[in-house]
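Consider the following input, taken from an annotated entry for Peptidylprolyl isomerase (Streptomyces mobaraensis).
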Amino acid sequence: MVTNEQRRRQLAREKFERQQQRREAQRRKARNRNALIAAGLAVLIAAGGTAAATGALGGDDKKDDKASADATPSELPTPTAPSRGPDPCAKPAAGSPAKKTWKSEPEMTVDTSASYTMALKTTCGNIDLKLDAAKAPHTVNSLNFLAGQGYFDHTKCHRLTGEAAGIYVLQCGDPQGTGAGGPGYTLAEENLKSDLLQEPKDEQLKQAKMKIYPAGTIAMAKTQQPHSTGSQFFLVYKDSPLQPDYTPVGTIGAEGRKTLDKIAGAGIQGGAPDGPPNATVVVDKATVAKS
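Applying the prediction step yields:
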């Protein structure tokens, strides 16, 4: 028998999917409108791509309305003026997020037979990641390229989800800090049959063809459309049931798990199920290294 709690979580996941479809439509509308404005003013703009790479993990309703002109997919049930709890993190380093975008996926330079690590030096502590170049070569190559360009430096982790949402992730990788940003290009999803993903024990989740993204996983955010992975990624701090559509690219080390627990423990602004974390999580510096 399906319990009320199971039903509530299933409805929450279904709501996320519906919201993402609306966000995709809003982005297309915004891009078309902006293109017409630019043409009317005879403004020459270097094409860089504005498609955001967010998954079923975004911003809030108020921000969605405000930022739709900027092609943001943010949409969350947060209060109009969310209160904030204690911030356990340090002040961000001086600097601003990058604004550069690229027209196409970078040339492949990673060695798929080698091991790669990614280090996120954040205001809340270090997050160490092990990347799987063999099983997600294009994704690792993109992360390596973007980190080398300083793309992730000074970026805010803009979204935290928790118990009420039924998934447990911290989402980062957007220089805009809204859930709308991307590098200008997108990637095909990879490694979707990864051994990292686990079968759920819950029959309802099995019937919905969900997989468990286990605690300690780093995966890439995306839209509902295929080939929509960009720069945004999410860090799983507790087992989370999701459709197996998001590229699992690696695992989080022990130090990173502690940092994530610290961030999650501080909660979400306004006590919402999903939204900006109370902790001011800023990536001061991101590096990828061959090990």
